Amino acid sequence: NAGVTQTPKFRVLKTGQSMTLLCAQDMNHEYMYWYRQDPGMGLRLIHYSVGEGTTAKGEVPDGYNVSRLKKQNFLLGLESAAPSQTSVYFCASSYGGLRTPEAFFGQGTRLTVV
Amino acid sequence: AQKITQTQPGMFVQEKEAVTLDCTYDTSDQSYGLFWYKQPSSGEMIFLIYQGSYDEQNATEGRYSLNFQKARKSANLVISASQLGDSAMYFCAMREFGNEKLTFGTGTRLTIIP
User: Fold this and answer.
1) Min Cα–Cα distance to chain B from A104, Å
2) What is the 3-state secondary structure (H, E, C) of chain A?
3) Weakly modelled stretches of chain B, pLDDT under 50
4) Which of A52, A77, A93, B79 has the CA that lies 20 to 30 A from B62?
5) What is the C-alpha to C-alpha distance for residues A29 and A87, in angstroms, rounded to an integer?
6) A22 in Cβ contact with A75 (< 8 Å)
7) Which chain A residues contact residue B43 at CB under 8 A?
8) Please, are residues A5 and A25 in contact by the beta-carbon 8 Å criterion?
9) How far apart are CA B20 and CA B15, in angstroms?
C-alpha cells in the first residue's frame, strides 16, 4: 500500500527559482493538506483542499500556490523561492466527515533555498 | 489566534512512569475532532489517538489515552508505562468539521530516561 507519496524527497533551490511538490494518495481521500514544519513552530497549514477542484488558504499561504485537478493529487508550487521557504514540507490526506477522520501523512520533502 | 496550544516544549520522564502531555484548544465550532500524532527522529508522522467532540467517553488506544475535558477545552495525552521508544515529538491537532481545517500545535519533545 503506497498511502501518501511525496515527490521529491529532497531538493535544493536557488533564490528565485520555481518548483512544484507533488503529493499523491491512493486511498480515495476527499481532503488533502500541505504543511511546513520549522523548528519550534510545529506544523503550519499552508493550503488545503476538501475535494477535486477546490483549494483553500491555511495559516501561511503567502508565496505558495496549489492545485487539485485530480482527486488523488495535490500540487504545491513555489513561484519564486526565498530562503524563508527553507523547511520540511508534509502532505496529508483524510476522508471527509467523521469516518476514519485521522489524516495520513507523506514522508516529507526537505527543501533548502540558498 | 492560536487554535492549539502545547505549553510544554520538552519533557523528561523516567522509563516505566506515566506521562501527561498537555493540549488546550480554541474553537467556536460544536463539531470538531482532536488528534495526537507522534513524530520520531526519523521524521514520519504517526497517528496515535482520536477524540470527537461529541464522544462522551475518553478515547483509549493501548497505552495511550486522551483526557478530554470539553468545558476546559483541553485534550491531554496520557502515556502509561513509558518506554524508551516513546521518545519523540508529540503533536496535538484539531479538525473543525465546519471548515475542515486541520491545525497543529507546536509540539512537545518527550525524552524517556532509562
Assistant:
1) 8
2) CCCEEEECCEEEECCCCCEEEEEEECCCCCEEEEEEEECCCEEEEEEEECCCCCCEECCCCCCCEEECCCCCEEEEEECCCCHHHCEEEEEEEECCCCCCCCCEECCCEEEEEC
3) none
4) A93
5) 25
6) yes
7) 88, 107-108
8) yes
9) 14
Give contacts of B 30-89 with A, CB under 8 A.
33, 35, 37, 43-45, 47, 50, 52
Q: How confident is the model over A11-18, as a mean pLDDT?
A: 97
Fill in the amino acid letter for A36: R
First to last CA, chain B: 39
A24-46 pLDDT tens trace: 999 999 999 999 999 888 999 99
The pLDDT tens digits for A82-103 are: 999 999 999 999 987 666 688 9
With beta carbons less than 8 A apart as the criterion, state whether B66 and B58 touch: yes
Short-list A106, A84, A82, A108, CA closest to A94: A106
**CA B19 to centroid of chain Cα atoms:** 12
Does residue B103 belong to the interface with chain A, where contact is any CB pair within 8 Å?
yes
User: Which residue in B23, B22, B34 sits closest to A102, CA to CA?
Assistant: B34
Residue B103 burial (CB count, 10 A): 22
